[in-house]
Write a structure and sequence with these properties.
Structural class: mainly alpha
Subcellular location: Cell membrane
Order of helices and strands: HHHHHHHHHHHHHHHHHHHHHHHHHHHH
Membrane topology: Multi-pass membrane protein
Protein name: ABC transporter permease subunit
Helix content: over 70%
Shape: globular
Family: Belongs to the binding-protein-dependent transport system permease family.
Number of helices: 28
Pfam families: BPD_transp_1 (PF00528)
């Protein structure tokens, strides 16, 4: 294979593995379907080990749970019994100090909507959980970041653990926590703290690593102890990056509190969203979801100002005046204030949404059904089980035959030869592989082909080490008996990522070319990034009901934003000197975009693809609530059955898929950066 590129060699290896499996399928059926006798009872082993470990630490965990009950109850009591005018004015005063008039108005309007929605008591319960879980997460995450900075030997293991924690689906956290701490709101509090700690740890470590050497040397020369150097010099110098961690910690905690409502049974906003969704009260569900969105936006914007280098100062007397106004109104009208949960001014609107939705779905039932069926029958089903099983008289109007399979392979082989003659061997072989995958279906792919293909791709992306790691990790999924479910997850998330790459790339391109388009797209992206995951399920359920198509749309809605942002950012970040040189040489706008901006933006676009993949896997488990199969469904079922072994194993399998995809895309992005000299 001398003279061939790494990509060509990898494609030929994958094609050879696929051809062997295809030729030997009839004589060696175990090449296609992994024998059940070879499967190890890994789920049972993990369950037994975890049950032993959880039983060992359960007394300490229950004691900690009982301890955390008191601050949570205290925060809940304070927020629930504080008059709502005082809460609104206190938040507005803080918003004024952080961001001035615009942020203060945002706080007034946002909390006014929460009050008018009738979900004020539930909102205060949610904030009570956040108010206790965030300090806990800040302490845990900050401590981990400082320890990793102080002891370089543990830095690499800590980074690996943080990677795992952020790739393991959020639902997988809940199963062992349910066993440890029991059913109740404290579980949501602890789950939020665990989930929100990694962003804080990462940013603390990153901030301390970026402290200028001159600052460290000055601290040493001044004769300070190591603790003095750390807390009086280095941490203040890393303050901006640490504040980014605080912002991300707050958002993660709020997101996880909503998810933890599944096992919390607490009268909070997350529980209201779940309850109204289960009752098919989509208007009320959307209203509760909007309350979550408002809290997410307010928390994001207010904490985001702490990350700015130079923040405008605002007169504190105005803040004190707003706070005094809230106290005065609360004192004067104490006896006349209604219970905040009784307002419910938007209930007629929610009822109208339900009626309007029913009318819309009835009037457009044929169009909506046709759209859903067309995507299912002509896109998703062939990707899942292959053309040879998906093409039926019921769906396509005719049956797939072996002659058609032969024709598809012949067309793929012809395209491969054409591209090979042009010197593009890798692209040609990949087209042939794609034809085989389309004929077979992702969920039906032979396991040797998947291992060989993934290993070859990892070798191209990151070398021999990543290839070995990829094959070993995928082998653990294969031996654990979760292979078929993993392929189902891979199929749906892969289809959603491809759709995000096409649609998000197109929107990002349009946003880069036209500032007017970006002015419209940007607030939509901001809203989508602050909406908690559950809320994405509401609009698709309202229109398309439960099913795989609804899950597919929900994943796209959540995962498309990074693709849009990073594509646009990469295309508009081309250095001025490169643009000037292209302009001087007479390049047209299209030539400049294709030959200058796009190649330079490739690393940024690949980073956006990386984030899109991780977002898709994160949403896959949430989408299990409305009709997906695969690992997400296994995690959700494990949660309902308190099956720690299945929950941990399925969560680990999904984390493995996300981790492999993450490392591969990062490898390709790094290669492009080196090629560009960045």
């Amino acid at each position: 294979m001398a003279g061939l590129s790494k990509g060509s060699v990898a494609a030929l290896i994958a094609a050879a593995a696929g051809a062997l499996c295809l030729l030997l399928e009839s004589s060696l059926p175990w090449l296609v379907k992994f024998p059940a006798a070879w499967v190890l009872p890994a789920t049972d082993w993990v369950g037994a080990a975890m049950e032993w470990f959880l039983a060992l630490i359960k007394p300490a965990a229950r004691s900690f749970s009982a301890l955390m009950f008191y601050p949570m109850e205290a925060a809940n009591y304070v927020l629930s019994h504080t008059p709502w005018p005082l809460v609104i004015c206190a938040t507005t005063a803080l918003a004024w100090m952080l961001g001035g008039v615009r942020m203060a108005l945002m706080a007034v309007v946002g909390l006014g909507f929460v009050l008018a929605s009738g979900y004020w008591p539930e909102s205060m319960n949610t904030l009570a959980l956040v108010a206790v879980s965030v300090p806990l997460a800040l302490i845990i995450g900050g401590g981990i970041g400082i320890l990793a900075n102080e002891y370089p030997r543990i830095r690499q293991p800590v980074q690996a653990v943080l990677d795992i924690m952020q790739t393991v689906p959020t639902f997988a956290y809940l199963t062992p926590l349910l066993v440890l701490f029991g059913f109740g709101p404290v579980v949501g509090l602890i789950a939020s703290a665990i989930y929100a700690a990694p962003p804080m740890a990462r940013n603390v470590l990153l901030g301390l690593e970026r402290v200028e050497p001159e600052i460290k040397e000055a601290a040493v020369m001044s004769g300070g102890t190591r603790l003095q150097q750390l807390f009086q010099c280095e941490i203040p110098s890393a303050g901006q990056q640490i504040m980014v961690g605080v912002n991300q910690c707050l958002m993660a905690a709020l997101s996880m509190v909503i998810i933890a409502a599944v096992i919390g049974g607490f009268d909070d906003i997350g529980w209201e969203v779940l309850l109204t969704m289960r009752k098919a009260q989509f208007g009320q569900s959307l209203l509760a979801g909007l309350v979550i969105v408002i809290f997410a936006i307010l928390i994001d914007r207010m904490s985001g100002t702490l990350t700015q280098d130079r923040r405008a100062k605002h007169d504190p007397r105005v803040a004190w005046g707003i706070l005094a106004l809230g106290a005065a109104v609360s004192a004067i009208f104490w006896s006349q204030l209604q219970q905040p949960g009784t307002y419910a001014l938007f209930n007629p609107v929610a009822d109208s949404v339900d009626r309007g939705l029913s009318a819309f779905t009835s009037a457009n039932a044929e169009i909506l059904t046709a759209l859903k069926n067309n995507v299912l029958f002509y896109v998703l089903l062939p990707l899942r089980i292959g053309l040879d099983q998906a093409v039926l008289p019921f769906t396509w109007g005719f049956a797939w035959t072996p002659v058609m399979s032969l024709g598809l392979f012949a067309a793929g082989a012809a395209a491969a030869v054409v591209f090979a003659l042009r010197g593009q061997i890798a692209l040609g072989v990949m087209l042939l592989i794609a034809a085989g995958m389309l004929e077979t279906g992702i969920s039906q792919l032979p396991w040797p082909f998947v291992l060989a293909g993934a290993g070859a791709l990892a070798w191209v992306a990151g070398g021999r080490g990543l290839a070995i790691l990829t094959v070993v990790l995928l082998g653990t999924i294969l031996l654990s008996g979760l292979w078929e479910r993993a392929l189902l997850s891979l199929y749906l998330s892969g289809a959603a990522v491809f759709a995000c790459a096409v649609l998000g790339g197109a929107v990002g391109l349009a946003s880069a070319v036209s500032p007017g388009v970006w002015r419209v797209v940007r607030p939509v992206c901001d809203m989508l990034q602050t909406i908690p995951l559950f809320v994405f399920l509401i609009p698709v359920l309202m229109v398309f009901q439960i099913g795989e198509f609804s899950a597919f749309l929900a994943i796209i809605a959540y995962a498309i934003v990074p693709m849009i942002r990073y594509t646009r950012h990469g295309l508009v970040s081309t250095p001025d000197e490169m643009i000037e040189a292209a302009t001087a040489s007479g390049a047209t706008t299209w030539q400049m975009l294709k030959d200058i901006r796009a190649p330079y933006a490739a690393p940024s676009i690949l980073l956006g693809l990386n984030q899109t993949i991780l977002y898709a896997f994160a949403m896959l488990v949430i989408a299990a609530l409305i009709g997906t199969t695969g690992l997400g469904q296994s995690i959700y079922l494990a949660l309902g059955q308190a099956d720690v072994g299945l929950g941990i194993s399925a969560g680990a399998a999904m984390a493995i898929l996300a981790l492999i995809a993450d490392r591969m895309v990062q490898g390709f992005a790094e290669e492009r950066r080196k090629a560009l000299g960045l």
